[in-house]
Amino acid sequence: MNRIAAIIAVLGSCMAASAASILTVRGEARLEVPADQFSITIGSMSTAPTVKEARTEVDATMSKLVNVVTAAGLTRDDEWHTGRYDVTPQWEPRPARTQGSTWTPKIIGYSVRASIAVMTQKMTLAGALIANAAKAGANEISALNFSLADPRSSRAEAIKAATKHAITDATTLATAAGVDLTQILQLSLDGAQATPPRPVEHRYMAANKGRAAFDMNMESAPDISGGTVTVTANVTAEWAIDPKKQ
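Given the sequence above, the corresponding structure tokens read:
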């Protein structure tokens, strides 16, 4: 009987330990970090009866755009590279059905599109790059985005802040409830991410007749601000708690 009583006592002790009181707190952090790099695509598109004609115009413009990014002090491969070079056939539109059913599609021309993709930390160049690219003949300027060159560094700061907030809130809650925090039972990261500002709506795809008016408006570089990147983190912590010692 004594042995059975001892076993029951041990089981009761284990159950009490497993049913220890727990305090759970969620810490949140939201940092607004100034963007320190931008990306943009500048290019040219031309449609002509032959590939050679379309390429001639596009290649001439792309040569000028290479001079634009080089003159801006951007390094090839590190800060800019060829984004695309596409040749697409243009098909004759299908005629109305009343004209017969013997129609065979045929190529009536070609579109050639090429672009340069830029990504750099030289934030002050954004406006000037757009203006100079337009003056050089670019008729496709798009995808202007701002971001962080080292997002993990800011992510780490957000995690630290969220953890600190969790500890502060847990301490405040424990003091108000008259209990002591004894040890952290579990610590988890629910999520940490960087959300860049919305892409700048600066898309230019002009026909030749509209390019002169566009160039006239681009005599001076547009004033473009990178804004801030929102970095968030959420941390959940569980503490074992005991009644406050007298």
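The first helix runs from residue 2 to 18. Try to locate this feature in the token string yourself.
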